[in-house]
Amino acid sequence: MRRAAVSVPSNIAEGRHRGTKKEFVQFLRTALGSTGELETQMEIAKLLPRTKDLNYEKISGLILEVERMLRSMIQKLNPKSEKALEA
Questions:
Q1: How far apart, in Å, are the Cα atoms of 74 and each of 7, 11, 35, 41, 42?
Q2: Other Cβ atoms closer than 10 A to 79
Q3: CA 79, CA 9: separation in Å to the nearest integer?
Q4: Residue 87: is its pLDDT beyond 90?
Q5: In a domain, 60, yes or no
Q6: What pLDDT digit, counting tens, does each position of 1-39 carry?
Q7: Domain contains 31
Q8: CB count, 10 Å around CB of 12?
Q9: Total number of domains constituting the chain
Q10: Does 19 fall in a domain?
């Protein structure tokens, strides 16, 4: 979960420094994919006894907020091809 969580801002930063809008959008998509990984890992963690005391509602809300921000950034940078991201 930590790796996926760190991957999100890392991909945003790397994409921003690549130099082209197209590459930046690709790295934003990769960051969005990492939020999906994080959601899946959170669902798995819910089943484990050691993690039963985590605040999953708060974590889920934060993940959704980051997903919305990423989708918005992608759409603003590449509006004509991002209708599929409006999930």
A1: 17, 13, 14, 24, 24
A2: 9
A3: 22
A4: no
A5: yes
A6: 899 999 999 999 999 999 899 999 999 999 999 999 999
A7: yes
A8: 21
A9: 1
A10: yes
Note the pTM of the prediction, 2 decimals. 0.84
Q: Which residue has the tokens 């899946």?
A: 40
Separation of alpha carbons 34 and 1, rounded Å: 10
Strands (E), the chain: none
Collect all residues with Cβ–Cβ distance below 8 Å to 10 and sequence separation of at least 6: none
Query: Which domain covers residue 71, as residue numbers?
Result: 2-81
C-alpha to C-alpha distance for 3 and 41, rounded to whole angstroms? 11
- How far apart CA 13 and CA 43 sit, in angstroms, is 27
The tokens of 63 are what?
A: 């993940």
Q: 84 CB contacts (<8 Å, ≥6 apart)?
A: none
Report yes or no: 9 and 36 within 8 Å, Cβ to Cβ. no
Cα separation of 82 and 3, whole Å?
Answer: 26
